[in-house]
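Continuing the series of single-chain predictions for the mutant panel. This is the parent chain; the variants come on the following pages.
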Amino acid sequence: MKYYLLPLGCQMNQSDTGRVRTVLHRMGFVPTDNEDEATILGVIACSVRQKGIDKVYGRIEKWNAMKNRQNVITFVSGCILPADRVRFLKLFDLVFPMNELPNFPDMIRQYGIVTPASLKMGEEIPYQPVVQPQMPLFNKHDKVNPSANMEPFWAITPCQASTFEAFIPIQNGCNKFCTYCAVPYTRGREVSRPSEDILAELKSLVERDYKRITLLGQNVNSYGLDKNGEEINFAELLRRVGEYGKTSGKEFWVYFTSPHPRDMTDEVIEVIAQYDCLAKQIHIPIQSGDDVMLQRMNRHHNMETYRHIIQTIRRVLPTATIFTDIIVGFTHESEEEFENTRKAMEEFKYNMAYIAQYSVREGAVASGWDDDITKEVKRERYHRLTDELMKHSLVYNESLVGTTVKMLVEDHDRKSGYLNGHTEGKIVIRFASDDESLIGQIVKVKVTAATPLSIEGELI
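Parent structure:
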């Protein structure tokens, strides 16, 4: 019996998908890329953007049509707004928050499905066609807390999608309530994972020669704050990771995403400087370069605070690359407010910026506000910021020409005869080689050419 999964959205959803795979494998199911072969069809959804939800509706329409010719079970989990959950209850067989994943085998058994694992265990459960249980697993009146009792979920060892890159969740949920964002309503309040479990998962990955490991959370640098002193803070967590790296005898890079400027401390930056395994790359979202807009977004920081963070990174981590997130065209964004964002990009000279054109998301505070910036203006501002990014990233990438950098080899490049990957600073890089044994290894490359978003070199 086979299963098909469709993960959507951010790295946290991708990480959660690994634990879903583990549960399905324990039940005896095997993966397939062909939906028509699957008995179980699932989506790890993302309500944060409408585009992601539109994909869910498109897929479930297809899957429900399949039920006319074969027995299948459909399920949806992940980041789901309450309003979307109510709609999904009418379309999917199973709808559950991710913290209920340990109960997934029991949910399946309610449908009378005999799993391969239960057959091996000798359970005498007769096969029955898939039918809707008399009592739905959830109804629209249920109060679902996506962050409640996460530890049984985190205790599931994930089935990693890669042999050299992995993601480790260190917390779930968000307490910030930015007005444009629905995450607090899809994942609940911030809950920190026990540091002992985080470190144990990281050590297991390093021992299996994983090279790039990312610590995940909606606000990673607020890690531990919900434990009222009963857990270490984020800087200490990084320090313990770094100490392990020093004694492991392994070469690997540890990243984290995403930090929030409000909770970003000098101590975190200083700890990163002390350890080779803590990657010299910082993703620090700015969203806007205008203080009035930041208040409208309820970002809990201003440009003075943010500028101090960038200046500290430049001083303490002079080789670090800096990435950011920016929203253009948020409600009431004036030309002056936008220009302040462009000036911030000019000042901070980011290596990469993920620029989003604002779209209303049901559930967020701003969904009740006028989306009064036209698509044409949003698009024009997006391109102006993109041009600004390209200008500064090209200068940085050209400065690498003639130098030797380390990179993690990840895959064949679309240019025939080349392999590609990323540097420690997450700059895209490629070099001429057909040696597949290099994939998953950290190698040295001498940089010979540069473009705004990538570099090229020769393997040393």
